[in-house]
Amino acid sequence: MRVLVTGGTGKVGNAVARAARLAGHEVRVLVRDTARAKAVLPHDLELVTGDVTDPSSLEPAVDRCDLVFNAMGLPEQWLPDESLFGRVNADGSANVARAAAAAGVRRMVHTSTIDVFDAPPGGRFEESRLAVTPRRTAYERSKQRAERAVLDASGDMEIVFANPATVYGPGPAGSASLEKLFRLVLRGLLPTVPPGGFGVVFTEGLAHGHLLAAERGRPGQRYIFCDEHATLMQLARTVVSVTGRGRAPLATMPVGVATAVAAAGEAVARVTHRPPLMARGQLQFLLWNAVPDSTKAQRELGWKPTPLDEGVRHTIAAARGPKAVQS
């Protein structure tokens, strides 16, 4: 089967492209920067230059494809220009869906997020808990709008939504990646962590989930992919436990201190135009502290979560070599 993957230089798209190739598919990847793509993608994938914000550039990418994995997007919770979230995440996704439908693509798996769901702080949620009001940050609102835009632009093409929790694991790292936390813990440079927690999902397991969604997912349905819920303190202690190295933080920040740090960080970021260590949107997400339920994906797709210690071990091994972790 010929498949197109968008977002191949990002963590999710990269893992999906690799998994699709290992599954025997003929994989084409939409890229903006060919040199960057060649540095992070297997050499036997077909690269097609294009940009999701330029509809005319998408026609060659979707030509003669049977399936599209739309895994591109801006995953950060802060950008100097917030309008980019809407132009890329929402409008760009609609452009991909429209081009794919016009080319006769049978099905598209759209990578969304758990941020489109609603639950009380600390509560548990599953796919029926779709938020009916706009979420708090520009990123979250863009992902809400992206789901609606994809459905509106899809025509007769089948759409299946993959809604991952916070993604970590091997692959290209973004500005908000958990791997930064892992490195700080290994170096003993993280004396304290913000409060709260979130669901996490390992990249390779998530990529397999995308393939299962393409094969078995019901059209129009959403599937949450989450291994388990974890606090930042739990993640840090897992890094120390599986490696026997580094030092876990000594304490968790009080909410008031974390709020002040996030506000100050964004004030500095507006001047430097560099992402803050913790944006207010990221802190809000942590304090939401809700628990995603992946029962539907496990039951309907046959997907299996990755144990946290196993995922962390593989992530660190991929970054530092197999001798960096204990067997």
Task: Kindly summarize this structure in a few lines.
This protein is globular. The protein has a domain of 227 residues: Rossmann fold (3-Layer(aba) Sandwich), CATH 3.40.50.
Number of helices: 12
CATH topology annotation of the domain at 2-176 and 198-231 and 291-308: Rossmann fold
Could you describe the largest sheet, including whether it forms a barrel? 7 strands, parallel
- Helix/strand/pairing category: alpha/beta
Which parts are unreliable, with pLDDT below 50 for 5 consecutive residues or more? Answer: 322-327
Q: So, the CATH homologous superfamily of the domain at 2-176 and 198-231 and 291-308?
A: NAD(P)-binding Rossmann-like Domain
| Number of β-strand runs | 14
Arithmetic mean of pLDDT:
94
CATH class of the domain at 2-176 and 198-231 and 291-308: Alpha Beta
In helices, the fraction of residues equals: 40-55%
Trace the largest sheet across and list its strands. 3-2-1-4-5-7-11
β-strand percent reads: 15-25%
Outline: globular
Give the termini separation.
Answer: 38 Å
Taken in chain order, the helices and strands follow as EHEHEHEHEEHEEHEEHEEHEHHEHH
Just name the CATH architecture of the domain at 2-176 and 198-231 and 291-308: 3-Layer(aba) Sandwich
> What's the Cα radius of gyration?
19 Å
Keywords: Oxidoreductase
EC number: 1.1.1.219
Domain NAD-dependent epimerase/dehydratase: 3-186
Organism: Candidatus Protofrankia californiensis
